[in-house]
Amino acid sequence: MEKFKAFLKKKDIVISGKRYGIDALGAMAQGLFCSLLIGTIFKAIGMIPALSFFTDISGYAMAMAGPAMAVAIGFALKAPPMVLFSLAAVGNAANVIGGAGGPLAVLFIAIIAAEFGKAVSKETKIDILVTPTVTILVGVGLSMLIAAPIGKAAMWVGDIIMWATTKQPFIMGILVSVIVGIALTLPISSAAICAALSLTGLAGGAAVAGCCAQMVGFAVMSYKENKVGGLVSQGIGTSMLQMPNIIKNPKIWIAPILTSAITGPIATCLFKLQMNGAAINSGMGTCGFCGPIGVITGWLNPSEAAVANGAAAISPAGIDWAGLVLIAVVLPAILTFVFGQVERKLGWIKEGDLKLGE
Q1: CB proximity list for 318: less than 8 A, separation 6 or greater
Q2: If we measure between CA atoms, which residue out of 252, 246, 219 comes closest to residue 233?
Q3: Of 26, 24, 25, 39, which Cα lies nearest the Cα of 290?
Q4: Between 83 and which of 18, 79, 93, 279 could a Cys-Cys bridge form, CB atoms 3.0 to 4.6 Å apart?
């Protein structure tokens, strides 16, 4: 056992929730962003006649979602070059066979393939043959065996959430908004979770509301301590920056969570806000304005996953635009600021509690 532990340490194979559930998951979201998400944005831009060439570019970017996710996961797991490059084939197989639930299949299978590849890397004199062979055989072999079932399971869970949201938009609006919003601020990837579950439609709209509540909420609530820099870094960057402060004083999280519990059902019940762009947008919030962009692209050109669930392109009316602005920016800013002021008066939030680290 000691020899085995020493071998794992030598190969930097760390079997832990942090390595797989935070590092790998977060990297997967970045891979999705740099392929599927940016491709979706390009596709929307390509609808402008003078910029139609963006449509062709988008196709190339979106087609690389599987390889991009797998390589990003390998990078997070500190895979050596031969393993890292081989994961492109693994990611493509897992994503294609996994279907709409492909991202979840890629996550599981790329992790296993990467760790096997790392285990054999540089252990033989013919490493250039052995390492890619093992990585690809393990990854593609597993894809052929389990990618489809994993993908179907992810789709099933996502379908249940979306079905429940249409049946109980008030209750599910609260639950989805709060849970996905919390995931956004935690050191895990809400974007990857939404992508893995192929979360679109009303449930996607509730997720957008929850994420925006956290990001815009923390940005505005902490403006006194962090000024314009904090407003930008949290508002269009990530609310995850507040995690060290949340650990010190969990009460600072109450205001944005309460806000998400309000904006979620407003999104689902009042404005019928649907996020029918790429599912990853549902968990992005205002990070690079990806949440609102996803809603807009979903109006104009719904994603394949959204179309499969009955979505169709629309010409957004004034109420649609008003709802998006209110849910994504105005209500999170106002409500979280008000709740934060109440907490300050109660002494739950003290001077410096929201100050970001230098």
Answers
A1: none
A2: 219
A3: 39
A4: 79
